[in-house]
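Side project, low priority. Logging it here so it doesn't get lost.
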Amino acid sequence: MMKKWNQVKKYTAIALTAAMTASGAAGCSQGGGDNRQDSDTPAAAQESESPEAEKESSATLVLKNGIIQTMVSEDDTAEAIAVNGDEIVYVGDSDGAEAYIGDSTEVIDLDGAMVTPGFMDGHMHAANGWVTKLFAVSFAECKTNADYIEAVKTFADENPDVEVITGGRFDLNNYAQDDGTNPGPSKEDLDQACSDRPVILKSVDGHSYWVNSKALELAEITKDTKDPNAGVISRNEDGTPRGMLTDTAKDLVAELAEQVQYTDEMYMEAAEKFQEEAHSMGITGMTSCPSGNDDAISGFYKLEESGELSLRLKSAKVANPEIAPEEMIEIVKKHGEAYQDSEWIDTNVVKIFADGVTEGKTGVFLEPYLESAGKGADYKGNPIWTDEQFNEMAAALDKEGIQLHTHAIGDGAVNQTLNAYEYAEEQNGKRDSRFTITHVCAVTPDDIQRLASLKVVSALQFLWMYADPLFELEKAMIGEERALAMYPVKDMQEQGCILSGASDYSVSPYNVLDEIETGVTRNSPYTEDTEDMYRNPEQSVSAYTVLEAYTKNVAYENFWDEKLGTIETGKKADLAVLGQNILTCNPEKISETPVLYTIAGGKIVYKNDATKN
């Protein structure tokens, strides 16, 4: 039976069991340090009993009678929070919060509900999925190749004036063969749906395009066209292009894809839909790293200009080997000029692709792919950058104080990235760079130690850590033993690595509660029948560890830790209110936890129907 995101099942109210309440709601722990206000009446109220003074000491919002998981430490809990404007002004027991309640204070009786810092996502491609849903061919409801063809045909028939048809995302698993090979989708199938206009469709992982014959013709891709460096043109047995272009091979149809232009209003609508959806999941912040430098992210800029943005955004630009380091520095500076004083948008970060993806045969490994991958006996994947190019870009950006955020899937790409980060540190000296690598799917024990010693942030996709359909593709490329060994999170934690949480949306869903459950169980959060879906459960970690990854550690990754990531006085009031204690409940039920409220900047931006009067 499928589980549903954010579905309020048996939690018809906000109540918790007595056992959960006993685990921490009785009052503050002794480990809170100076993040508390004294539970006595606040100083402003003590100084004067006048109505004016009482009004000045009042909070705009008070949450009381709950389990407040501050994330300062695992045993640091409280009962109540007072918020004035966008700032937390009190964390302590419920009696102490009473002094902050005035005539205009909104009060939420949590009745034992859990409060955490607002969830954050350390690596995603924000709003892209909504652009597709609203304005392109969407495969969201499709399961098979036949479904894809029907969806394309329907869109083409209903949109005769669209000159280039785009959308996605197709699942490469639909094309696996009994002999372990996977040729991918074919242009001939797409031609059945639309042959008079180019069709360009993304894969689930975003690293491949499925194109029809018209697109290949216009891009002049033929049997004689060679694979570009770090890219793959899938081919039929006779060498003709089959219809799938992976990683840098996508660039061959870039001019066609760029003909599709969305308006600012379209991007803004997609951003609004995404923001609403994200808040329903308790999410208040994200790191958005586009695949290129023109992206749906502009919709969030429009929301910020109109005063409607309530998601904190770290927005990256993308570097590639064709861009000189000094040019990249200017791109980043120009990007940041408009948002220097923004409360909601930060820039000053560059994304680098060190490799592609395993299933696309473009991930870079230290050991060869299987011969069934079809790339020869010694093929390990081709790096996108030479070592010299990567080192020089990393050093130049780091010298300017620009943060580096690198995509690395294979252990070879992780190794090359760490070499570049070490080079930058050697050239510029130790500084608070907060170098980040996202994915880190395969990594050697030696490089786990280097991740820790360099204090590199690993932005991990916890939802990838069970035997999902992608696991079948990875096994077909590198073998079951190596595929099972991916995501050694416990080893990384024990070595002292900094782990942040990420989804890589719209490659995969971005519900943080699903991700937390998967990190604990190493099993699917979606179905009850999960007996054969465990993936290396010895590498599971605690719910607190994964919660920390999606709160405190994303704040650290983004240089937001002075204002976000923990519940302390003086910090921004970005909070998620949950219908059960996810640290003490059955781990297999974490994904069923309802989000009751989401608070961003001190304002309630999401309220579950079960909490409405």
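Brief comment: The chain has three domains: 18-118+572-611, 137-257, 323-557.
Revisit when time allows.
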